[in-house]
Amino acid sequence: MKKYNIYGYSFEELSQKTQQKVLDDMRYNSVDYGWWRFTYEDIAENILPKYGIILGDAEQDINFEFDSYNRIVCSLNIAEREIDIKKFLELCNIKLPHQALWEKYNLYDYIAYKITKREFEIEVHTSKLLPHLEKCFDNIYKILNEKLKEILDEIEAAIKEEYEWLTSDECTKENIIANDYIFTEDGRSLPAYAKEA
């Protein structure tokens, strides 16, 4: 059996060209695991409460995927108990058709609602309404879903920002240095046991 001596180099000791090769090779290491969990928690704690939405389980209620153009597309699965619809409308500064009648007759109690994927699903209990109040629900579906689109855009931007940071040169370099990786001169990663004693 032949023995070979292999010299190990820290990231800073590599040439600039080889450093870039290492960054490109290791760029996606930080997004191999459930990196989105902390972002989901941040969304649940700092974004959705601004709209009166309090999640029970962020990891189950928020989802995203990359579409065919590699864009982040988010979806929500939020039950009625997690949304205070009156507070949602107030916080979003949404004025409904015939707002005074909404307040007078507390019409918020006449709708059932939830968010499924990228859509507000709404059911109006018209059988319990006085006929002249049915007009109050004109365009309610459109109004709520236009606002939901804005919220989804905000959530997608937060997820995109985190993903782009984790796959950036700066973050990748920080992880390499923090984990004290060593490399061959041409940028191949060496196992931890190859480090000097």
Helices and strands, with pairings:
Layout: H1 16-26, H2 36-47, H3 58-61, E1 62-66, E2 72-78, H4 85-91, H5 99-105, E3 111-117, E4 119-124, H6 140-166, H7 169-178, E5 182-183, E6 189-190
Antiparallel strand pairs: 1-2, 2-3, 3-4, 5-6
Mind explaining what this structure looks like?
A hairpin with a 5-residue loop joins strand 1 and strand 2 (72-78). Helix content is 40%, strand content 15%. By secondary structure, it is of the alpha+beta class. It is rod-shaped. The model has no long low-confidence stretch (mean pLDDT 89).
Please tag this protein with its features.
197 residues, alpha+beta, four-stranded antiparallel sheet, 7 helices, 6 strands, 40% helix, rod-shaped
Based on CA atoms alone, the radius of gyration comes out at 26 Å
Helix content: 25-40%
Total helical elements: 7
**Biggest sheet architecture:** 4 strands, antiparallel
Q: What do the pLDDT scores average to?
A: 89
Shape: rod-shaped
Number of strands: 6
Strand content: 5-15%
Strand order of the largest sheet: 1-2-3-4
Distance between termini? 23 Å
Secondary-structure element pattern, one letter each: HHHEEHHEEHHEE
SS-derived structural category: alpha+beta
Task: Flag low-confidence runs.
Answer: none
Structure summary:
With 197 residues, the protein is α+β, with helices and mostly antiparallel strands.
